[in-house]
Amino acid sequence: MIIDSHLHISIITKGDSNFELVKQRLLKEMKINKVARAIVIPDNEPNPQCANLDAVIELTRNEPKLSVIATLKADQINGGNLKKIEKLFLKKQALGFKIFPGHDPVYPTDKRWRPVFKLCQNYDLPLIIHTGINSGNRSAAKYNDPKYIVKVAKNFKNLKIIIAHYFWPELDYCFKITAGFDNIYFDTSALADLEIIQESGGLKKIREILTKTVRRRSNSILFGTDWPIGSFKKHIDLINSLPLSSGEKQNIFFRNAEFAFRLKK
Ligand SMILES: [Zn+2]
């Protein structure tokens, strides 16, 4: 079985004229690639190209294969919105929360996030953190440097934190600084994309870092693609190419996601 822990309902080709069509294409591609379930991450602002939280909730309402991650901007955190997020967690309409440091000029250690992190911790749902450089804007990575993420991991010991994109292109640095944190996880989203492979030292480097990460803690990597930008097939091939046992690969493909997002409870 395969669970995709990180994708979006976003319009990247002219053929996808609305989110409903993107969703249909998503379900079709999931079927072709034998992806049983997917976690859809909304954009944290109204964006005609990428569905936001309300749109994703609406689009996935009757789609048992699609689950949702909640998100807000730091300046939207207030009593009312926290209640809304808690309600989503309670009804299992959202299975975690994502922050976008680097898209937003806000650090993961910003005090405003604390009530959200507490909420995730109380409901045992993960916090996903966007990391790495943005194409055309390398300085954005200063906001999502894992040195801040480990501070959050220290302050919220029972919070499951998923680092998205492995702080590319600085994979080794991200690997080293997260050593010893049993509440830090990584998703593989975008790691099979050509730009990220080229910028991060090549496919051999990506394979090496993922293998080392599994050896360090076998439950720490979750399969993710960043579809529609990332390809299902390329990411599946990447995991299958790792020198790991089939049990270890199954952990990546679905068991770690089942645990992190509490899919079986
Ligand atoms: Zn993404």
If you had to describe this structure to a student in words, what would you say it looks like?
- The protein is an alpha/beta fold and 265 residues long.
- It has a single domain (3-260), classed as Metal-dependent hydrolases (TIM Barrel, Alpha-Beta Barrel).
- 40% of the residues lie in helices and 12% in strands.
- The chain is built from ten helices and nine strands.
- It has helices at 19-32, 53-60, 79-90, 114-123, 146-155, 171-177, 194-199, 203-216, 232-240, 246-260, and strands spanning 3-7, 37-40, 66-68, 70-71, 97-99, 127-130, 161-164, 184-187, 221-222.
- The strands form two sheets. Strands 4-5-6-7-8-9 form a six-stranded parallel sheet. Strands 1-2-3 form a three-stranded parallel sheet.
- The model has no long low-confidence stretch (mean pLDDT 95).
Brief description of this entry?
By secondary structure, the protein is an alpha/beta fold.
Q: Helicity, in percent?
A: 25-40%
Poorly predicted runs: none
Class in CATH? Answer: Alpha Beta
- What name does the CATH topology carry? TIM Barrel
Report the sheet-strand fraction.
5-15%
Reported for the largest beta sheet, the result is: 6 strands, parallel
How many discrete structural domains? 1
Secondary structure tally: strands? 9
Bound molecules: zinc ion
